């Protein structure tokens, strides 16, 4: 004899859809975080490269005037540049904006740091 209450326990119709509906948001969030972290990594590498390029250019050209203006020209308009002349070396710090994720997990800015050592002329 088949009782109506017992058939509900053995009926699996729609179980896969319910599981998928519960797992899908987690997968979407993880994929979004992966994309945001990937973008932050690319911007971080670019920001570090900008700092190295500025330090190399300032040391190679033996800049003596406005270091900040020369640094901004090398780094680009969207990069914040701070230059410190330490006498025998030049310290460059760059700050680059990162597209913020909606959850606030990825940092909004990344920094690059480089030091260029001045060569003494014989």
TrEMBL record:
Residues 14-56 form the TadE-like domain. The keyword Membrane applies. Keywords: Membrane, Transmembrane, Transmembrane helix. The chain crosses the membrane at residues 20-38. Signal peptide: none annotated. Pfam families: TadE. The keyword Endoplasmic reticulum does not apply. This is Pilus assembly protein TadE.
């Amino acid at each position: 004899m088949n009782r109506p209450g017992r058939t509900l326990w053995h009926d699996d119709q729609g179980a896969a859809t319910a599981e998928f509906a519960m797992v899908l948001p987690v997968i979407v969030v993880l994929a979004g975080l992966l994309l945001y972290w990937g973008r932050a990594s690319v911007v971080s590498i670019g920001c570090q490269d900008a700092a190295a390029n500025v330090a190399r250019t300032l040391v190679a050209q033996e800049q003596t005037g406005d270091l900040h203006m020369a640094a901004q020209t090398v780094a680009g308009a969207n990069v914040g540049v701070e230059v410190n002349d330490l006498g025998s070396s030049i310290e460059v710090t760059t700050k680059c904006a990162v597209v913020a994720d909606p959850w606030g997990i990825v940092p909004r800015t990344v920094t690059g740091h480089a030091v260029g050592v001045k060569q003494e002329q014989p």
